[in-house]
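User: Hey, quick favor. My workstation is busy. Could you predict this chain's structure for me?
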Amino acid sequence: MPVQIYLVKNPFFSLGQMTDGRLLMSVECGTTAVYDIRFYLNDQEKNIWKKEGPAWVESLANRVMAFPDHFRDRIVEIV
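Assistant: No problem, here it is.
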Protein backbone atom coordinates (compact mmCIF):
# COMPACT_ATOMS: atom_id res chain seq x y z
CA MET A 1 0.00 0.00 0.00
CA PRO A 2 1.33 3.49 -0.81
CA VAL A 3 2.70 5.70 1.95
CA GLN A 4 0.28 7.97 3.74
CA ILE A 5 0.60 11.16 5.77
CA TYR A 6 -1.73 11.19 8.77
CA LEU A 7 -4.09 14.16 8.90
CA VAL A 8 -6.00 12.88 11.94
CA LYS A 9 -4.81 10.06 14.18
CA ASN A 10 -6.63 8.61 17.17
CA PRO A 11 -6.33 5.20 18.90
CA PHE A 12 -9.60 4.11 17.23
CA PHE A 13 -9.53 5.83 13.84
CA SER A 14 -7.31 7.74 11.46
CA LEU A 15 -7.46 9.72 8.25
CA GLY A 16 -4.44 9.74 6.02
CA GLN A 17 -3.58 11.26 2.68
CA MET A 18 -1.99 8.86 0.25
CA THR A 19 0.87 9.90 -2.01
CA ASP A 20 -1.59 9.89 -4.91
CA GLY A 21 -3.89 12.36 -3.09
CA ARG A 22 -6.65 9.96 -2.02
CA LEU A 23 -7.86 10.16 1.59
CA LEU A 24 -7.86 6.82 3.41
CA MET A 25 -10.03 6.36 6.51
CA SER A 26 -9.24 3.55 8.94
CA VAL A 27 -11.71 2.72 11.72
CA GLU A 28 -11.52 0.10 14.47
CA CYS A 29 -14.79 -1.84 14.68
CA GLY A 30 -16.20 -4.72 16.67
CA THR A 31 -16.38 -5.68 20.31
CA THR A 32 -15.16 -9.21 21.01
CA ALA A 33 -13.51 -9.57 17.62
CA VAL A 34 -11.87 -6.24 16.82
CA TYR A 35 -10.96 -5.35 13.23
CA ASP A 36 -10.10 -2.26 11.18
CA ILE A 37 -12.10 -1.19 8.16
CA ARG A 38 -10.24 0.94 5.62
CA PHE A 39 -11.89 2.87 2.80
CA TYR A 40 -11.28 5.95 0.68
CA LEU A 41 -13.36 9.05 1.20
CA ASN A 42 -15.66 9.88 -1.69
CA ASP A 43 -15.87 13.37 -3.23
CA GLN A 44 -18.74 14.49 -0.98
CA GLU A 45 -16.85 13.38 2.14
CA LYS A 46 -13.68 15.13 0.95
CA ASN A 47 -15.61 18.38 0.60
CA ILE A 48 -17.06 18.05 4.10
CA TRP A 49 -13.57 17.27 5.47
CA LYS A 50 -12.23 20.45 3.87
CA LYS A 51 -15.01 22.54 5.47
CA GLU A 52 -15.32 20.91 8.91
CA GLY A 53 -11.95 19.29 9.63
CA PRO A 54 -11.06 16.82 12.39
CA ALA A 55 -14.36 17.03 14.30
CA TRP A 56 -16.18 15.71 11.24
CA VAL A 57 -13.70 12.80 10.92
CA GLU A 58 -14.64 11.69 14.43
CA SER A 59 -18.31 11.90 13.50
CA LEU A 60 -17.69 9.73 10.42
CA ALA A 61 -15.68 7.24 12.47
CA ASN A 62 -18.56 6.95 14.94
CA ARG A 63 -20.96 6.17 12.07
CA VAL A 64 -18.58 3.51 10.73
CA MET A 65 -18.22 1.93 14.19
CA ALA A 66 -22.00 1.86 14.67
CA PHE A 67 -22.88 0.68 11.15
CA PRO A 68 -19.85 -1.03 9.56
CA ASP A 69 -22.07 -2.89 7.08
CA HIS A 70 -23.09 0.43 5.51
CA PHE A 71 -19.47 0.85 4.37
CA ARG A 72 -18.92 -2.74 3.22
CA ASP A 73 -19.02 -1.95 -0.52
CA ARG A 74 -16.30 0.72 -0.06
CA ILE A 75 -13.83 -1.38 1.94
CA VAL A 76 -10.27 -1.40 0.61
CA GLU A 77 -8.93 -3.63 3.35
CA ILE A 78 -10.04 -5.31 6.58
CA VAL A 79 -7.25 -5.85 9.09
